[in-house]
Design a protein that fits this description.
It comes from Ligilactobacillus pabuli. The protein has a five-stranded antiparallel beta sheet with strand order 4-3-2-1-5. It has a three-stranded antiparallel beta sheet with strand order 6-8-7, covered by helices on one side. The protein is α+β, with helices and mostly antiparallel strands. The termini are far apart. It contains nine helices and eight strands. It has four domains: 28 residues, no CATH class; 87 residues; 64 residues, SH3 type barrels (Roll), CATH 2.30.30.60; 83 residues, 2-Layer Sandwich (Alpha-Beta Plaits), CATH 3.30.70.100. A hairpin with a 2-residue loop joins strand 7 and strand 8.
Length: 298
């Protein structure tokens, strides 16, 4: 008993009212060899295409990586290290999506789906898809201009809206920011409207020391100036030496002696803490009583 007879017997058993002659002729006339051969051919072609695109994807990423590694070794290029890292990440994303698009196109064509005809004749669907993908397109366009205008690069410390941290990656659709607490934020590029970049220029360390109303202000300034003279040469990150601005009323019933120091980006907070601690220690040793509550200026 061949495969067709077994299939016929099973079908008749399940469907008692089925005419065995009609079903028998259908099974006998069905070209099983051609169907199985066509199926195996499509499966083989699918596996071949998958392996081919996997090789292209792997080799392409390797070539991109090697090209950027050669660029990193050339110190005479006008691109910064962070800039190269940003372009490298974006290039990988573009290549990945391009390979994925052609892979899907090849698989659909293999299945006999007329992709070109569908794309040409799907006017209404294209409009609906365009409206639905409007945000996606906006993300890509915004990401392109972010890269073109060099608003920020990988490794820079920025504030995007309410999120502040270090740029971890820039993609076609989203920008990743690593927050100060270790949280990785994914921000759609279309949501980036205001960029505050803290890594492009020198940063200001602002130090306010509350004034002892019972002591001489000029003596306090002399002590702080002496601390600046001894402590400033120890920090290579300082770009503009400390400057005493004098007494300032920042509001809320307080009166402070303000000092400004300009440093390289990223060094302002440690320098601010170190200088403030040195000021308080020197003033305390000199007999100054630094107020811990606001002074009533009235």
């Amino acid at each position: 008993m061949d495969f067709a007879q077994i299939f016929l017997a099973a079908a008749v058993k399940k469907q008692p009212n089925l005419n065995p002659n009609i079903f028998k002729r259908y099974v006998e006339n069905f070209d099983w060899d051609q169907t199985i051969s066509s199926l195996l051919e499509k499966v083989g072609s699918f596996l071949l295409i998958s392996v081919l695109f996997l090789i292209v994807h792997s080799v392409g990423k390797k070539l991109i990586r090697q090209a950027f590694e050669r660029q990193v070794k050339h110190q005479n290029t006008h691109l910064s290290k962070n800039r190269k890292a940003t372009i490298y990440t974006l290039s990988l994303n573009i290549f990945h999506y391009a390979v994925l698009f052609f892979y899907i196109y090849a698989v659909l064509s293999l299945l006999g789906i007329p992709v070109g005809t569908l794309i040409a004749g799907a006017g209404i669907f294209s409009i609906a898809l365009g409206l639905g993908a409007q945000g996606f397109v906006t993300d890509i366009v915004t990401g392109f201009f972010i890269l073109l205008e060099e608003q920020f690069s990988v490794g820079e410390y920025v504030k995007l809206g309410e999120v502040q941290g270090t740029i971890h990656a820039i993609g076609l659709r989203t920008t990743q920011i690593l927050g100060d607490d270790g949280t990785l934020h994914f921000i759609p590029n279309r949501s980036i409207t205001v960029v505050s970049n803290f890594s492009r220029n020198d940063m200001r360390a602002l130090i306010d020391v509350r004034i002892d109303p019972n002591k001489d202000l000029h003596e306090m300034q002399k002590i702080i100036a002496h601390v600046n003279q001894e402590l400033a040469p120890q920090y290579d990150e300082i770009t503009i030496p400390p400057k005493i601005l004098g007494a300032v009323d920042p509001g809320n019933g307080t009166l402070v002696l303000r000092v400004t120091i300009y440093t390289k980006n990223g060094a302002q907070s440690p320098i601010q803490r170190d200088f403030l601690a040195a000021y308080l220690e020197a003033l305390t040793q000199a007999g100054f009583d630094i107020p811990t509550i606001p002074i009533n200026l009235n």
